[in-house]
Amino acid sequence: MRPEKPAAAADVDVDHIAEAARLERTADLYPEDAEQLLLQAAAHLELAGARDRATTLYDNLLSPSAPHPPSSPLLIRALKASNLWEYGHEAEARAIIDGVRAAAPRDPAPWVIVAESLESHDELEQAHTAFTEAATLLIPAAAEPPYSTHPILFGRHRVRRLLGADHDDWDALADQVSSSAVPLDELHDPKRVWSLGSENPAELRAEIARIQAELGSYRQALSRPFPVAVLHWPAPELTELLTAYPALTSEYPSHEAHLSTIESSLRELSASGTPNLGIVTGTVPSYEAFAASEASSPEDPSLLPQYATTLAARGRAVSWPPEGDGACWCGSGQTYSSCHGAATDPA
Questions:
Q1: Pairing between strand 228-232 and 277-281?
Q2: Cα–Cα distance between 309 and 32 in angstroms, integer?
Q3: Where are the beta strands (DSSP E) in the chain?
């Protein structure tokens, strides 16, 4: 499943061209959210068959003259490659895919896009290699795989079933993290298509049950399109916030305490079994604009979690904990393992 695929994609009554135009107008109004809005617009254009226009949006986002450098350039390149291949530009698509894989992104999304693109064009061996490269790079050994990496495990499992490969440790891990009521081996059975043409009522009922389970998994993923996010204020922003709104000092007694609370809160959520955790970084102007939109005072502490959720919904969240030995979320410049991740590993 494409990460940016619009939730309304299954609605045959959606005017995808009109929705893309609306999103482009919204991006002009909110340049700080333009990247996510334009990626959604491009997805609508692809669904409408206007793939050349979608490519133009991807090119605009990647252009050196763009107002803001893209936060996820490798994801945009992967989406562009997938789109190009669908309307006859195979050579260019392959070249971009090779470049994305060589860059070894630390975000699972570009890997999923390029691997699924290869899979959809029957390049199963290459798709399997891409999924395996991603799993090796992004999923730590002897640890719970991050929520964002689950599509890598499921995609790899699916491709291996198509190739007729035996189960390995990664496949066992995919089975372990799957929440579907139907085992992955059944969902990814390459012979399933034949049962749809069967005249045997029992076979048809079994296939309907499998499809319902698969749709249930998709709905579960779509019901959490953005992480459960905790709000982070960099030191200069927090100083500005408390100077303007001293009543919030009770929420933020010090910047050090603020950072410690973020890490402990996320660890508690992780220990309770909450998946898909993230951090959003606030700015005072953005927070003031949000408070105005809610017709509330910025000094109202109940606005803070709402502001965090709004930023996450706009695609501004960074996954927690950082993948591998990535930089710490606090902006210290140290690796997470030597900074806020040094105390204990998250559950």
A1: parallel
A2: 16
A3: 228-232, 277-281, 318-320
